[in-house]
Each structure stands twice: as C-alpha cells, then as structure tokens.
Specification:
The complex is a heterodimer of chains A (88) and B (354).
Chain A (H helix, E strand, L loop, with lengths): L7 E3 L4 E5 L4 E6 L2 E3 L3 H7 L8 H9 L7 H13 L3 E3 L1
Antiparallel strand pairs in A: 1-5, 2-3, 3-4
Helix pairs in contact in A: 1-3
Chain B lengths: L7 E5 L26 H14 L3 E5 L9 H10 L3 E6 L6 H9 L4 E6 L4 H8 L4 H14 L3 E7 L7 H11 L3 E6 L4 H5 L1 H4 L3 H18 L4 E5 L19 E4 L4 E3 L13 E2 L5 H7 L1 H4 L17 H4 L4 H8 L15 H9 L11
Parallel strand pairs in B: 1-2, 1-8, 2-3, 3-4, 4-5, 5-6, 6-7
Antiparallel strand pairs in B: 8-9, 9-10
Helix pairs in contact in B: 1-2, 3-5
The chains are: A alpha+beta (88), B alpha/beta (354).
C-alpha cells in the first residue's frame, strides 16, 4: 500500500536527464525514452530514495503554489505503474 | 513530410563474433576487420548522433567486446548524455572489464542466450559459451546494472522455452526478450531448418502467458511472435526512418538493421556524408517514410497506421519489391509465397554462421 509516508526512487537503470536538443527533461531506461511533463519532472527530481511523498510535497510547495500531497501521490503512482519509480 | 529527430542509434561496431549462431541476422557477406570504422570515426558518429537527437545508444555487433576501443566509445557516448546499452554474447565480459565499463557510464547490458541447457546452448552457438554467459550474467548482477536476456526462438530450442524462462530467473534478469527468428541475412538460408512448427507455437503461448503473470513486477517478458504464421505482418519498426538508425561496421547507415538486404536502396555512409544529412535528406531514409510510397492494398488499408505496410526488408526478400505489401499480410495478393514456405517439409541440417 502506497501512502504519503512511502519513499519513492527512480527504478534501477532509470536515468532522468535534460535533452538540450529537444529542450526537455527525459527519462531514459533500457529500451525506452519517456518525456515527462513539467509536473512529473519536478516530482522526479526530488525522488532521491530518502524523501517521503510528504517531504517531496513540502519541497515542491516552497517552489510552486497549490501543491497537494494527493496529486503528488497520484503522479508517482502512475510513474510506478510505468516502471519508472520503485517504492522502498 | 514532417521528420522527427531519431531517438536511438544501433552502433554495429564490428561483425566479428565468437559465436556461430545459425539464426544470425547479419548479412551473409560480413565486413572484415580492416574495413571497420576507426575509433575517431565512431567518436564522430556518436557526437553527430547526439546532436541529431539520439538518446539511446546500443553498442552491438558482432561482439562489441572484440573492439579494444569499446571503453573509449562507452565513455564518449555516456559523456554526451546518452543511455548506453551493451548488446553482447557475454564472451569476454569479465567482472573486471565490466567494472571498467560501468565506471565509464555503461547503463544496461543485453545478454544473448541460445538455450536452457549447456549442451543445447553450446550446440546452437557453435562454441563453448553457456558457462561463460552464466558468469557474465552474474557479473552484471553484481555490478548493479539492469540485465536483459535476449533469446532467439526457433524449431531447435522451442522445446526448452520453460527452461529458458527459468534460466532468466536464475540469472536475475530484469527483462527477458523471447523473439522468434526473423529471416534476414544468414538466418534466411536456414529458414526451413529454423521455422517453428505450429504445434511448438501453440505450446509456447500458455507457457509465456503463465510466466508473464507469475513474474509481473520482477521480470518483464517480451514475446515476439513468428510473423510468417500470423495473419498480419509485424510493423516496420515505428515507421521507416522514424525513430532509429543503424550504423554498420563499415560506416554504412541503415534505416533498419536488415536494410542492407534491399539491394535497390542507395545507402549512404558516414565516411562521406554528415549523419544529419543522411537522416533528413538521403534517398534511403526517405524511400518508405510516411505513406506516399504505398500501393494497394496498403494505401487504403485501415491497418496502415499500425504496421506501415509491414516489413520493407521482408517484402523485398520475398517479392523482389521493397514497396510491396509485406507478403505475410493476409491481404497481400502475394501471401501464397509465405504459405508455400510454411508448407515445405522441414530441413534437418543447420548451416552454422561463419
């Protein structure tokens, strides 16, 4: 069960980087490339395997207004289903 | 038409290989060592590819470990920001050598296997390979890199399918690709010996389905069907010249790894033409882009956006016309060509790759 206290991290083999050709963040992994939207990219940058969803929400709220933990959780749950994010 | 930048580069560093697999899809005529691109050439190809938009670099062959400059090429591709994938037989991939490549930025290893047991695998590889692959797999796992296991299926190993899946589990593979043989290059001359029987294909389906369900979340399984037996062809990649390009050992640039088979294509080379010019403007990359080249029945077919007319290389090899509908398609007037192949009695002898 994934909750606000769960700790997400990029799955082994997944790398988040910036593509200066397309001028966008990209997720690279075996056999695939995903272009995350701006929200997903901002969330993923904070997935260090130490912060919980609550802590990620707090960090995002310092930079953006209207950040809600439930939204962050649902973004991360989707990325988990796409095998980008793993839960520790 | 609107052409997007490529995402992937298949860099075939060499055709030299310690294995002799009869299903090898490389051309019958291999590039010799003295005709291979130099280190400086490959560094330039990688830089040009990244500027063009490439994010995934697959270092392949032949056996890429046969190139002494592999560490330099891994380091360069990785420093450019590419995700670097090593496609290997595993022979020569010692823990030391792997550690060096990981240090330089290698991200993923794709290891081949030929069968579930040592006896069968070595027979099919034409070399004492199986135990060395087990050691290579263990080294990859110990390094922390994700591991994919690639297995080409055919009449001589379909009976070991369950064992192959268990082998991948024992290796701790993150991903298992089970691909029925595709008949290009050397494999085409062994087609009648490699073609799986309908009974084998029917038996494989529940085995794969059960494994996919059982291993969900731990190992991803990709199963590529034997398209001669299907009513519709496999798609031509994501479309011709749409996402990926291949650079052959001698610098020839191919829209698809099998495209050297299409003798009517005017192929370009990185030896004399910038990669971007080849991607956007060459006649070979533009030959089957989009839909304008299509004839009937593809031109008005509701599946043309799904399979892009099927495989251009297969269309050429089986009909002599690379713009024809892939004859695997049940809507192709030339489907009887494929049915005749399927009706032929199996052949016993395999001709090993040389």
């Amino acid at each position: 069960m994934i909750t606000a206290e769960s700790v997400p991290q990029l799955r082994r083999g997944v790398r988040l980087t910036f593509d200066h050709v397309r001028e966008t963040p990209v997720l690279l992994f075996p056999e695939g490339v995903l272009v995350p939207n701006a929200t997903a990219a901002a969330v993923l940058e904070l997935c260090d395997g130490a912060r919980s969803v609550t802590e990620i929400t707090t960090a995002l709220a310092q930079r953006y207004s209207g950040v809600v933990a439930q939204d962050v959780l649902s973004v991360l749950a989707r990325l988990g289903e796409r095998r980008v994010v793993a839960w520790t | 038409m609107d052409v997007s930048p490529p995402l992937g580069l298949l860099a075939e560093l060499t055709h030299r290989c310690p294995l002799h697999c009869p299903y090898c899809s490389n051309p019958v005529e291999l590039t010799t060592r003295d005709a291979e691109l130099s280190t400086a050439d490959w560094v330039s190809v990688l830089s040009q590819a990244r500027e063009l938009g490439v994010l995934q670099v697959h270092l392949s062959g032949g056996e890429p470990l046969a190139r002494p400059d592999l560490p330099e090429l891994v380091a360069h591709a990785s420093a450019l920001g590419c995700y670097v994938n090593l496609v290997t037989s595993g022979l020569g991939l010692t823990a030391d050598r792997l550690a060096g490549l990981v240090e330089l930025g290698l991200a993923h290893v794709q290891l081949s296997a030929q069968g579930a047991t040592r006896e069968r695998a070595d027979l099919l590889a034409g070399a004492k390979a199986h135990d060395r692959k087990l050691a290579a797999a263990a080294a990859v796992k110990a390094s922390g890199l994700p591991l994919s296991l690639n297995v080409v299926l055919h009449r001589r190993n379909h009976d070991q399918l369950a064992g192959i899946i268990e082998l991948a589990e024992r290796m701790g593979a993150d991903r298992l690709e089970l691909a029925n043989t595709q008949y290009y290059g050397w494999a085409l001359r062994n087609r009648d010996a490699l073609m799986p029987t309908p009974a084998q294909l029917a038996a494989a389906e529940p085995v794969v389905r059960a494994a996919v369900a059982r291993l969900r979340g731990t190992m991803e399984i990709v199963y590529v069907v034997a398209d001669y037996h299907e009513p519709y062809p496999k798609p031509c990649m994501y479309g011709w010249g749409a996402r990926q390009l291949t650079v052959a050992p001698d610098g020839t640039v191919l829209p698809c790894p099998a495209a050297s088979a299409i003798s009517t294509l005017q192929l370009s080379s990185v030896r004399d033409t910038p990669l971007a010019e080849i991607w956007y403007r060459s006649s070979s990359f533009n030959a089957y882009r989009g839909e304008d080249w299509m004839a009937e029945p593809c031109r008005t077919c509701d599946r043309r956006g799904l399979d892009f007319g099927g495989c251009r290389c297969q269309a050429f090899l089986l009909t002599g016309d690379a713009a024809a509908t892939d004859p695997v398609c049940s809507r192709s007037p030339q489907r009887p060509v494929v049915d005749l192949v399927l009706a032929r009695p199996p052949v016993a002898g395999l001709v090993m790759r040389r």
